[in-house]
Specification:
Length: 497
């Protein structure tokens, strides 16, 4: 690992805005956040993947991956970050290096690729991503980008986050560092207003930012730049003139918020667009900080009026589902979206939360879950797929809300499932998004396909059901033919008896 990359990683781990890191001893902090992998466990993305995820939603930029083609294939467009304009970000660019480049170096090929992109697409900037192979053979992407910027008169930004540097979260932050080092503060916005804010760590997945934007528009608040969902290069370059930064709860790019505070004196706060109460708190915080920064005071009162009207409208729309959803039980296994943020809206729709995961929750999150759900709240620290399967199969839950990785557990148990993590297809942001979430739960639970798939399959000519054939086999001693017995008990492959 090059000395400059090592120094950058050490700097990122010394993040004052990360409570978890600050709580660690000096020695522990040096070890970084990488967990020891256990065999069979999913490892998640690499640092390159993290940087690409964090920056790819900048829509008008060409994202060029310097490495073997598989790296680009690994990370290309695997989320649903939406754009309101340019679609260049969805074109996969890679130098696709081969064996000869590994022997002779890939820098010339990289330079030629940058030239080709600029000639063909003329983007406002090109982002160049380092990967494991090109870092190991010693390609100096910083030097090539500098030379290309001078030659073509366009920003060519090196993103030095090769896969082996660490996990995906580190890559998110290294992507943020590239913006801090080469983009933010390099241009002036055309004009500024006392109502300018940046939103950091929001990726506009399935268009969620567009559920919040009308609310801000109604208050006259301008999103000077969003880093990085539906982002534009020039907006991010001029983002240092914002009055307030909002850090979206995921903290994936907290380093941008803290360093912009140090460099440009922009205060930041952490907020969330998920859940009705949280959305209102976020609007209040933005208004409060803008007034502190010099915006007219009537903003506070206008914000309260908007919140009252929007909350009333959202609760009324959610209450309409109560009759259909009353008493239905939800198992909530989430990672990215804070569990307790959505619980209140689900309860208002008459749903019962039978369990919620707290794997990524902080101590305060857990307290909050207890407050909302009572002392007997079923908090699940780390549920194995087998436990999820049993819970769903025994009908202790009517639907599971989780990320894509657990979807097959629910489908094997023939139970409805809804994706609420990063690959989700529906936007669940702001007030509108909570109504959408309840609507999607209703659609999933009442989908007629579940009645169909739960009917036992006919077996044999006389119409005897498969379950009737299985019953005597299932009664045999467990030690005898364990495989056959598992089948007879209706268990699916991969789920032991
Ligand atoms: S770990 Fe290295 S080789 Fe694999 S995808 Fe990431 S950058 Fe590419």
């Amino acid at each position: 690992m090059s000395a400059s990359l090592k120094a950058k990683i050490a700097e990122v781990f010394d993040e004052p805005g990360c409570d978890k890191n600050q709580g660690k001893s000096e020695k522990e902090r040096k070890k970084g956040c990488t967990k020891q992998l256990s065999p069979g466990a999913a490892a998640g993305g690499c640092a390159f993947d993290g940087a690409k995820i964090a920056l790819q939603p900048v829509v008008d930029v060409a994202h060029l991956v310097h490495g073997p083609i598989a790296c680009e294939g690994n990370s290309w467009d695997n989320r649903h970050a939406a754009s309101s304009g340019s679609t260049l970000y969805r074109t996969g660019f890679t130098t696709d290096i081969n064996e000869l480049d590994v022997v002779y170096g890939g820098e010339k090929r990289l330079f030629r690729s940058v030239r080709e992109i600029i000639e063909k697409y003329d983007p406002p900037a090109v982002f160049v991503y380092q990967t494991c192979v090109t870092a190991l053979i010693g390609d100096d992407i910083e030097a090539v980008c500098k030379r290309a910027s001078e030659k073509f008169g366009k920003p060519v930004i090196p993103v030095n986050s090769p896969g082996f540097a660490g996990p995906k979260n580190l890559g998110n932050k290294l992507g943020g560092e590239a913006l801090l080092d080469y983009v933010i503060g390099t241009r002036e916005p055309e004009y500024t207003t006392p109502y300018d804010i940046n939103i950091i760590g929001e990726y506009n997945l399935s268009g969620e930012l567009w559920q919040t934007r009308p609310l801000l528009d109604a208050l006259g608040i301008r999103i000077l730049s969003c880093i990085s969902g539906d982002g534009r290069y020039n907006e991010i370059a001029g983002s240092h003139r914002a009055k307030v930064n909002m850090m979206v709860c995921s903290k994936s790019m907290i380093n941008i918020a803290t360093k912009m505070q140090q460099r440009y004196g922009i205060p930041y706060f952490e907020g969330s667009f998920y859940g009705i109460g949280d959305m209102s708190d976020t609007l209040r915080q933005i208004a409060k900080l803008l007034v502190q920064q010099g915006a007219p005071e009537d903003l506070l009162e206008r914000t309260e009026r908007l919140i009252a009207a929007e909350e009333a409208r959202a609760w009324a729309r959610i209450a309409r589902y109560r009759e259909r959803l009353q008493g239905k039980r939800v198992l909530l296994i989430t990672g990215g979206v804070k569990s307790w943020s959505v619980v209140a809206a689900l309860q208002e729709a008459g749903l019962e939360i039978v369990g919620t995961s707290i794997k990524k929750s902080t101590k305060e999150d857990k307290e909050k879950i207890k407050q909302i759900m009572g002392d007997d709240a079923h908090m699940i620290d780390d549920m194995t797929p087998r436990e999820m399967y049993t819970m769903l199969r025994d009908a202790k839950a009517d639907i599971m809300l989780s990320g894509g990785r657990s979807q097959f557990v629910a489908l094997k148990a023939r139970m409805p499932w809804l994706d609420i993590n990063q690959e989700r297809h529906h936007p669940y942001g702001a007030y509108e998004g909570m109504v959408e979430l309840v609507h999607e739960i209703d659609r999933a639970i009442h989908n007629p396909v579940w009645q169909q798939v739960r009917i036992p399959a006919p077996w044999g000519d006389d119409g005897e059901t498969l379950d009737a054939v299985r019953a005597p086999v299932a009664a045999v001693e467990p030690a005898v033919f364990p495989g056959v017995r598992a089948w007879a008990m209706g268990l699916e492959p991969g789920v032991p008896a």
